[in-house]
Amino acid sequence: CLLSRGLGDVYKRQHLDGTTTSTQRASAARQTITPELRRWIIEQAQAGYAAPVVLQSMRDAGWDEDVAADALEITLQEHLNDLAVQQGLPSAVPVPEPRLDESPAQVDCGDRTVNVLLAMAQPRIVVFGNLLSPEECDALIAAAEPRMARSLTVATKTGGEEINADRTSDGMFFQRGQSPLIQRIEERIARLLQWPIENGEGLQVLHYRPGAEYKPHYDYFDPAEPGTPSIIKRGGQRVGTLVMYLNTPEKGGGTTFPDVHLEVAPQRGNAVFFSYERPHPSTRTLHGGAPVIAGDKWIATKWLREREFQ
Predict the structure, then answer these.
(1) What are φ and ψ of residue 252, in 5° steps?
(2) What are the residue ranges of helices labelled H in 131-175?
(3) Residue 120 burial (C-beta neighbours within 10 Å; 0-12, 13-18, 19+)
(4) pTM for the complete prediction?
(5) Any idea what the Cα angle at residue 302 is, between residues 132 and 142, rounded to 5°?
(6) Side-by-side strand order, sheet with 204-208
């Protein structure tokens, strides 16, 4: 097809005479993304071709599928970041990312096998099953319950904390590695999300009674707020969130993502993860805790930072 012809020329120039022997395919796997290939991929994206169509054209032109997929993903991500910077958005930074490149149904976390129930690319949202055992859920609630108090939010104008009318729950924080239970869960999360333990804030447990909610918000710290520079001194920006459900409410209490019309039902032992590569609404990570209609809701939240959190 016409889409493949220009790419075939790129392939031939990059791989000598254009033949596709196994030796040359192996060599292709070691090729870097040349400016010419990058330009071709961007041209196809600007022309409106979907990623699967572009990938198939690359395969038809002789590119190894894995090499083509990597080149496509890297190029498009870099192009989007370049466009974002040109538009005045903050630069993207590395974020936690579970190992899902081969679409596994399960992820080995060392001491536990976690199920992958849903994975969305944009925004990056992954729903996990069986992250916590029933015994671990009960133990977290029991350890947290005596220390619960009205939940506070970060005051980005001052760098401190404050009561927020949008958040009507009770909560508390565990110190990182505070107990064998906390340490075991943190090690599991680090393996699941491929992010260092020391880059995580202390685990927070929240309790929502009937009618309690947390209205839609972002978890990153707004760069425009005067208190943000002092907040991010402790470990940089937040770049990812993991919400773990410690029980199953009778009704309500889901985690909502209004920008993509998604609601994750709170199921005991399950979790929802989402990441945000820049502190900007373009990440579409606006989310909230829907009101609890019947029963109670208990969750544990782990926020992940760019660097070591102190």
Answers:
(1) 80, -170
(2) 134-144
(3) middle
(4) 0.74
(5) 55
(6) 106-108, 113-120, 125-129, 271-275, 238-245, 297-305, 204-208, 170-173, 149-150
What one-letter code names the amino acid at 38? Answer: R
The tokens describing 111, both together, are: 């001491």
Distance linking the first and last C-alpha atoms of the chain? 56
Dig out the tokens for 208 from the structure.
């929502």
> Tens-digit pLDDT profile for the chain (310 aa)?
434 444 445 444 454 344 444 444 444 444 467 888 888 888 888 888 888 888 888 888 888 888 888 888 888 777 767 766 666 777 889 999 999 988 999 999 999 999 999 999 989 999 999 999 999 999 999 999 999 987 756 655 665 565 666 666 889 999 999 999 999 999 999 999 999 999 999 999 999 999 999 999 999 999 999 999 999 999 999 999 999 999 999 999 999 999 999 999 999 999 999 999 999 998 999 999 999 999 999 999 999 999 999 9
Assess contact for 242 and 302: CB atoms under 8 A.
yes
What's the gap between Cα 172 and its chain centre? 24
Q: 3-state DSSP call for residue 45?
A: helix
